[in-house]
Amino acid sequence: MTQQLRASSAVASSAGQAFAGLFRLLKLARPDRPIHPQGLGLHGTLTRTGNPSGPSGIDWLDAPGTDQVVARFSRSVGLPQALPDILGLALRVSPPGAGGPADVLFASTGWGLPGRFLLVPRLDVAGAAMTTLMPYRGSRGPVLLGLRTRSLPPGSLASGAWVLGLHWATPGGRWRECGEVRLQAGASPTDIPLRFDPLEHQPPGAQAYSWTRRLRKPSYRAARRPAPPAVGRPTEPGHPAEPSAGHRGSTTATGRNSMSTVSQLFKTPSADVWRVIADGWLYSGWVVGASRIRDVDAEWPRVGSQLHHSVGAWPLVIDDSSRVTAVEPGRSLELVARGWPMGEAKVEMTLEDRGNQCLVTIAEDAIRGPGKLMPKFLRDPLISARNRETLRRLELMAIGGAGK
């Protein structure tokens, strides 16, 4: 038995480190939240009916009562809403007299066996089952929690009350209903910055098994580490981080996807950086993927002007162009970059002058063509890696005095 426990612990630890490595990779594209990148904040109540027919062994579940709830609904991978995704619902409940909140995380799974232990992508919450996936340890043994939708508001989750039935079961037993959760969005539906941690904030009478801690804790730690250099937007003391250009106003309720965004603090003033950007003939020197510049409109970089470039390496070279869609000289430039047959991308560049330094940000995402068909969680790291190298090249050219 001791050897089996050691083997199980070793497997959980190895899997936990593997998940943590994946989270660190995802943070290159999503420095704030590597998974569940966009969410919808909700609030409401959880009414516990208790378990008179048979206790679960978790004090919180077995005692009737009403808890205030703050919740976040999200899609795990962040795929477009037209595609199935792993759905997530995080609850922060505040049981009266418990001495602190409890975080309970649910994900879309099956309901029977073995489906209740398997993640299942869903298009929406209608008919979806959600469980804690991993059991809690109660006084009578392992307990799994589950939610099933009872009723939905018309339209999106932001338009009314979402009512779910709360259930519990032993890992191989039948589900028993023990309460109801009622949630709704605020007057102005938006995401919330709250971070949930089911390992640190557990319901009264419930504990996490040591193997679940080994499996989950490395990932939580990796997800909350500071963003790698040239990924997150740097902040200064007393100045909260602002959402990047591609993330403003983007929520799960609206179905809009954020852009892949990277930033770098240049050791040169913004005027030097803008001189390079404003010289279209220099783009092949700092834009990764641009192999040559064939022509530049005389009015570049005014709105509507084009830069005629080639993409790829000889002899596999594609001729196409990029067009300016918005510009604020010295501060920002927005382009639609074409590279058919791969498609088109929207690119936004912003410069924030900081005296002898400049914070340069590139936000980009595919908007048309085959490139947009690649799942966002796959294309984001590729775009981010390319644009980090683009920023390095741009800084070197600005420091070297390039540009008209």
From TrEMBL:
Gene3D superfamilies: 3.30.530.20. InterPro entries: Catalase_sf, START-like_dom_sf. Coiled coil: none annotated. Transmembrane segments: none annotated. Residues 249-261 have a biased composition (Polar residues). This is Polyketide cyclase/dehydrase/lipid transport protein. Residues 219-261 are annotated as: Disordered.
